[in-house]
Amino acid sequence: QVQHVESGGGLVQAGGSLRLSCAASGRTFSNYAMGWFRQAPGKEREFVARINRAGSITAYADSVKGRFTISRDNAKNTVYLQMNSLKPEDTAVYYCARQTSSSDYSIKGFNYWGQGTQVTVSS
Which residue among 56, 58, 72, 112 has the highest number of C-beta atoms inside a 10 angstrom radius? Predict the structure, then answer.
C-alpha cells in the first residue's frame, strides 16, 4: 500500500550540493514521521535525519549537522534532504522510510523503504 520513491542523487564534487526528494504514495503521509538513511558499500545502513509529522522538529546524525537539512511538504506527500558542503564520505545510497517507533532511530524503527538514490561525491 505504501511506496516511497527517492530521486535527486548524482555525481558532485566535494563542496557541492544536492537536493534529494522522497515521494510517498497514499493519503496518510502526514500521520508519520519520516527519516533519511544512507548505506555505503560494505557498510550497514545508518541514520541521517528525521522529521516529525508536522515538519516542526528535526534531528540529524552528528556527521551531517550544519550541512544537511530535512524538510517536508505534506500537501505534496514529499520529504526532502538538502545536502550542502558535500564530502567524499557522504557517498552512499540514500533511502527514505516511515518511522514506526518514535524512540528508535535505527533501521528497526522504520519501514516501507524506497529503492534508494545514489549520491557520489568526488574529491
Answer: 72
**% residues pLDDT > 90 (the chain):** 90
pLDDT tens digits along 28-40: 889 999 999 999 9
Q: Can you say whether the dihedral through the CA atoms of 71, 15, 18, 107 is positive or negative?
A: negative
Distance CA 8, CA 22 (A): 9
Q: What does the CA dihedral 42, 113, 96, 85 come to, rounded to 10 degrees?
A: 20
Residues 6+ apart with CB under 8 A from 94: 6, 9, 20, 36, 37, 38, 48, 81, 116, 117, 118, 119
Three-state DSSP class for residue 105: coil
